[in-house]
Amino acid sequence: EEQGTYRVYLVDLATGSMTPGVTGDSYSWSPDGTQAAYSNSKQIYLLDTQTQVSTPVTAGYAPVWSPDGAWIAFLSPTDPHDLILHHLADGHEITLVHARTVIRTLGWRPPVRS
Length: 114
Prior knowledge:
four-stranded antiparallel sheet; Neuraminidase
């Protein structure tokens, strides 16, 4: 694809058939596997893996699903120092961190078991 973008292919493991999916610069699968969050041109989308329909969610890039599937963490499209959380049920957003350096990658830590 274009420089810096990638295409996701959905593979049916039973048949081996591949279906070309969306193009973007970063992807994250939902914990239940029914959706993928991806960014393209500083816009985050949700892709329904069954219908192949994409829905715009918010401006940003580098989306990462929370382990419970309720939130997406992402980087601000205007300030790469800002880490933002987007609540999928109501669209509420929280700027979680304004870092002193540019944030390059995101991830969720597994829950701590006591």
